Amino acid sequence: MSDEVGQAFEHLWTPYRMAYIRGEGKPTGTHDCPFCVIPTMDDEDGLVVARGTTVFAVLNLYPYNAGHLMVVPYRHVPDYTDLSADEVAELGLFTQTAMRVVREVAGAHGFNIGMNQGAVAGAGIADHLHQHAVPRWGGDTNFMPVVGLTRVLPQVLRETRALLAEAWEQHLAERPGREG
Question: Looking at 68, 130, 132, 171, which residue is catalytic?
Answer without folding.
Answer: 130
